[in-house]
Amino acid sequence: MPKDRQPSTVPAASEEATPQGAGWLPHGYQLDPHSHVQGQVVYAAAGALATATERGTWVAPANRVTWTPPHFAHSHRFYGQTDVRVLTVPLDLCGELVEHPSVFAVSPLLREALLALTDRPERRPGAHRRLLTVIVDELADAAEQSLHLPEASDDRLRAATALLHEDPARPATLAELGRMVGASERTLSRLFHTELSMSFHRWRTTLRIHHALAHLTEGMSVTETAVACGWSNPSSFIDAFTEVVGQTPGRYQADLRNDNR
Question: What are the boundaries of the signal sequence (predicted)?
């Protein structure tokens, strides 16, 4: 795919018609918070992207695709040289999909439909609409694989998670974090479950996987990534990454190299 295509952009903190198209974005490129009057599907055919909302952050490597409903404020950050594909989902099709931002697995059919719809001009009236309905059908049937990192509203829990955001490799136990923010271990454990619907261990693992995806996309080795993100050894990192992402970190990097050829 040519690398001189220009990406579509949306002004910050605005609500605009949803952009559609394809483009290469540099590592670290960001779009400030905004929303769209229609639904939006964003796919990183190479690279990775993070979508942040008031409900937390969703990360999508090249085997996932993001969905954002209409009028839902969000921002994007791109990792690695990213081949980004953006689709508008008209309001009459949005009801087929979930009512909250999410990330879905990319089937071979879904990938090819996404690439075709963003690469090819419409040669016959209605062709793009027919292909878009295929994409919506695939997304409606796909399992959510959100890599979702929810954010807290309780001040004590927000303070604890902020410490981990600052340093994902921080080895602090839940009791140690509690002492830093003025809450007991039992209270923080309860808040993780009631507010974030996951355990402390699961939340921190997901946070570390988010950072690991960024490091791997930037070209950091598996061993270096494991250390940087807080794992004591590469094998435990590989196990955790494979469980969450669905492929080993080595396979993920190999796919990135193949996609960028």
Answer: none
Among residues 105, 108, 112, which one has the least CA distance to residue 63? Answer: 105
DSSP string, 65-95: EEEE-TT--EEEEEEEEEEEEEEEE-HHHHT
What SS3 state is found at 34?
strand
- Show the low-confidence residues of the chain (pLDDT under 70): 1-19, 146, 259-261
CATH 3.40.630.30 fits 151-259, yes or no: no
Q: Return the HEC string of 169-230.
A: CCCCCHHHHHHHHCCCHHHHHHHHHHHHCCCHHHHHHHHHHHHHHHHHHCCCCHHHHHHHCC
The DSSP symbol for 144 reads B
Q: Which residues of the chain does CATH 1.10.10.60 include?
A: 151-259
* Assigned CATH topology for domain 15-148: Jelly Rolls (2.60.120)
Q: 47: helix, coil or strand? A: strand
Q: How far apart, in Å, do the first and last CA atoms of the chain sit? A: 10
Write b or e for each residue in 131-159: b if 16 or more Cβ atoms lie within 10 A of its Cβ, otherwise e.
Answer: bbebbbebbeebeebbbbbbbbebebbeb
| pLDDT for the residue numbered 246 | 81
**CA dihedral for 59, 63, 68, 74, sign (positive or negative):** positive
Residue 12: the pLDDT is 37
Distances 84 to 37, 79, 92, 191, 200 between C-alpha atoms, Å: 20, 11, 24, 36, 33
- For residue 29, the tally of other CB atoms under 10 A from its CB is 19
Ranges in the chain annotated CATH 2.60.120.810: 15-148
Tell me what pLDDT residue 9 has.
Answer: 36
